[in-house]
């Protein structure tokens, strides 16, 4: 007979978003159990670069969530110290042509009006910030608020800081409902977890968990590759990316899109991205994708032509059609809450998401309007 546990909240997913939900809900006084079919950070989180960005967010709901999240990440960095490898390195977005620069400067001006610190950098000052950048770039914008963490460490230490129970190696097979139709917990392949609230923090598999609960949430996997180089001297100071990266993030095409993103790590290797394509959960190596990543990185930093790429890895961003996550209670099913669909921004947006979910769970008014993140905003699929 399976074991039965009782708590206030079950969080499904032990990635960084689930960890943040557990942390803030636990600190709000709730008894929390986190369940995952794999290990901590075994999904999208473990394949991430750890970006905490405002630079790629246009004014609107996601930028508001990013600004809240960055403030909370800074608080956690002071608390957790170097354990999560938090680096307030800042970002530098560069434009290759005058036309790209004009678009970037318009984008940055709108961001500044929304509270982002976006500093124009003329072409002749780019190498003051990044001495090894390619010559001939038209200019750029520096974003001092951008930062980075090591994502797997961040998830693990958020869970360690949360007084929550962690159950790994358990697959959720059913979302339980009580006589009144409301959620009353989940059943896994090993036990039954009774709770008045369930948080769907299942990342790319958030749509599958929603389906178990009988609701529609069209989360799709969007594959991306990252190249990891051999350890290098500290030659890249910021997160540096090309201006067309923002357009690639916002694109809806299922086809391969790449734009160069380069950043260092405390251990020495450089991380090189970013690619996006919708190919289901196919993890097979795409030579066109990784070749495009390498070529784009060399265009930004010519010295990389002499640096070896030691490995590559793939991850799946949890993509929703309007590029906004689902955050908050599901009005279709009392007791079900969603915290998924953050695409490639989940690590950066995790703390704000967890904070808002904890506020809702404890009956407080959330710090942000959750209307744009409503999980029921998508029309059901035609049958």
Strand order of the largest sheet: 6-7-5-15-16-17-14-18
Beta fraction of the residues? 25-35%
Give me the number of helical elements: 9
N→C terminal distance: 38 Å
Q: How would you characterize the largest beta sheet?
A: 8 strands, mixed
Model regions low in confidence, pLDDT < 50 over at least 5 residues: none
Extended strand count: 20
Q: What's the helix-strand series?
A: EEHEEHEHEHEEHEEEEEHEEHEEHEEEH
Shape: globular
Mean pLDDT: 94
Helical percentage: 25-40%
- Give me the Rg, rounded: 21 Å
SS-based class? alpha/beta
Question: What attributes characterize this protein structure?
Answer:
single chain, 383 residues, alpha/beta, eight-stranded mixed beta sheet, six-stranded mixed beta sheet, 9 helices
